[in-house]
């Protein structure tokens, strides 16, 4: 069974990877069991720490630019996904299949306008998936990272998504970060794919009828969900402006509604993006989150902003169905 480890943050990659190795061992795994590495970086990380940790084991790596972390002393974080034996290596480990899911590296380019870069990223993901005998129709979630200056252009990503994705659209999240993964990259995309028939689930929110993503997609026994903020699905109005706790309660309720639509299950992973305005109050959510999702591995990062300016937090969940 695939295991998500909580994100480990710290002042530098060497310290973080040393701590991540201890957490991995405590969970009964070793570096050879890792199927995906996500690095959350505030600046370009010097090479070496990841390579020493993996010791020749090749896995897909997602490099995710972030503005910071809830602890202002942290500069770097790692989130590991593990599966006994390291799953199935594809293309020499560039991709790894584990259970129902296929893990990919994040992708980006520095050439072209915003929509051109977005299309390039989707095409590149399709090329990578060919090595697994899959296509873009196998995607179960995309998370795109763009700068706040592109907020007005963001709707332009709808055309390449509609042209290239589907018929079962994946889940999606959109995060604004002002330090690009590479100079000139206006968007980078982190993605996850599923093997076998995919099923989408919607608690009955009509707004998704015109969108290029869905609230949740099931691959096998894994429910992969979109990012959720405090948005009324009927009026499309942001709710609880300025109140982090109320926003969190609302979006956790949204997560539960999608899980109920798909069937009974357990939330196993929560990736939470908080804005700088919410970072100081974010620790207050720990008790609420632990009570609602005691089995979830949590990774918390600070982004520059979210697509709706009123949002203080967006959560991206994964669950296993009973």
CATH fold category name: 60s Ribosomal Protein L30, Chain: A
Helix percent reads: 10-25%
- Counting structural domains, the number is 1
CATH superfamily: RutC-like
In short:
This protein is of the alpha+beta class and 322 residues long.
Task: Describe the 3D structure.
It contains 6 helices and 19 strands. The protein has helices at residues 13-26, 49-54, 114-130, 158-164, 244-262, 286-292; strands at 3-4, 8-10, 34-41, 61-65, 76-82, 88-90, 95-98, 101-103, 107-108, 139-146, 171-176, 187-194, 198-201, 216-219, 222-225, 265-274, 297-302, 305-306, 313-321. α3 runs parallel beside α4. The chain is globular, with a radius of gyration of 18 Å. The model has no long low-confidence stretch (mean pLDDT 96). This is Enamine deaminase RidA (YjgF/YER057c/UK114 family).
Describe the secondary-structure layout:
Layout: E1 3-4, E2 8-10, H1 13-26, E3 34-41, H2 49-54, E4 61-65, E5 76-82, E6 88-90, E7 95-98, E8 101-103, E9 107-108, H3 114-130, E10 139-146, H4 158-164, E11 171-176, E12 187-194, E13 198-201, E14 216-219, E15 222-225, H5 244-262, E16 265-274, H6 286-292, E17 297-302, E18 305-306, E19 313-321
Parallel strand pairs: 3-4, 10-11, 16-17
Antiparallel strand pairs: 1-5, 2-5, 3-5, 6-7, 7-8, 8-12, 9-12, 10-12, 11-18, 13-14, 14-15, 15-19, 16-19
Helix pairs in contact: 3-4
Protein name: Enamine deaminase RidA (YjgF/YER057c/UK114 family)
